[in-house]
Design goal:
This protein has 362 residues and is α/β, with parallel strands linked by helices. The chain has helices spanning 16-19, 46-56, 70-79, 93-103, 119-127, 146-156, 176-185, 221-225, 237-246, 254-264, 267-289, 313-322, 348-361, and strands at residues 33-34, 87-91, 110-115, 131-136, 160-164, 189-193, 214-219, 231-235, 295-296, 303-307, 325-326, 328-329, 340-344. The chain folds into 2 domains: 10-45 and 268-361, Aspartate Aminotransferase, domain 1, CATH 3.90.1150.10; 65-266, Type I PLP-dependent aspartate aminotransferase-like (Major domain) (Aspartate Aminotransferase, domain 2, 3-Layer(aba) Sandwich), CATH 3.40.640. Helix 3 packs parallel to helix 10, helix 4 (93-103) packs across helix 5 (119-127) and helix 6 packs parallel to helix 7. The termini are far apart.
Length: 362
Amino acid sequence: MNLKSRPFDVETIFRKEVLAMSAYKVANASGLIKLDAMENPYKWPKELKSAWLATLKDCPLNRYPDPAAQELTATIKSAYQIDPQFEVMLGNGSDEIIQLLLMALPSNASVLAPTPGFVMYKQLSDCLGLNYLSIPLRADNFDLDLPVMLETIKLHQPSVIFLAYPNNPTGNLFSQSAMLEIINVAEGLVVIDEAYAPFADASFLETLTDYDNLLVMRTVSKLGLAGLRLGYVIGRPAIIEQLNKIRLPYNINSLTQLSAEFALSNHEVFDLQTQKICQERSLMFDQLNALTGITAYPSAANFILFKTPENQATRIFLAIKEQGILIKDMSPQGGLLSDCLRVTIGKPKENKAFIKALESCL
């Protein structure tokens, strides 16, 4: 029998929210000095790598991983001195945790976050058809616009509020008093995203005991373990219990569990790397602000946002790329990010190459 194929219209299958979205694109960094993705530029010392490989040697790959990642969870609780009254849930990166939080909400729920902020808050909210509310940061210092935030909370009572601390892509720490006021008035969950905590010397972990609706979310990616894709969220057992209902079983594979547990048990190595990155951040901040036409913004993260001369950001970004260095062009996002570029702190040699390349473009 001769079967004739019928026309297929993809738009009749997928939700309108998905059809309207754009995919999250990652730039190709092949052959370039990679200063675009807030990664730790340092590799593991040879002796540490050998010990790690020895740990992985007997990993039972024929078996499913521990669905609760009990040993790794215990290591995280111990390493960060997490109060025993709180539970920890692991995710395949922070992205999965954000996704789980939003999947658990009713279809008409509102989600609130300042802008500019981490793009996945909006990306995942839009994907799930939620009502995403973005409140611009103050133009003078990238801090929270507290009156507008409070008014929006009062009007919409969002189910989830995301506050990144420090914020990506601006790099600053929001006013702690403003954040506490938001937590106090919120009837929904408030998620403090501490992805860059290793570089900030600031945290809301100890504040968890004061609020039932507070969650703190972290990742090991910026610490130097981006390839493992491991994030975690800390909060009251009653909240974590609900999220675990929709978390896919075995979401953290065996190799990630063993590797992360090994790395966190040898945190001194990563602590030293973090110190180097913070020292380089301070040096690069001064070097950027010494360049004519460049304004670098203070950062508590492992990157620096800086403003270029008007309408020159993309030209400068491409010229730097031509010299073999990849940073991030933030200017297409517009608003407070107009004319802005973002650079990740690399090794001293990489940072010098970047400053030299930028200087040649001005």
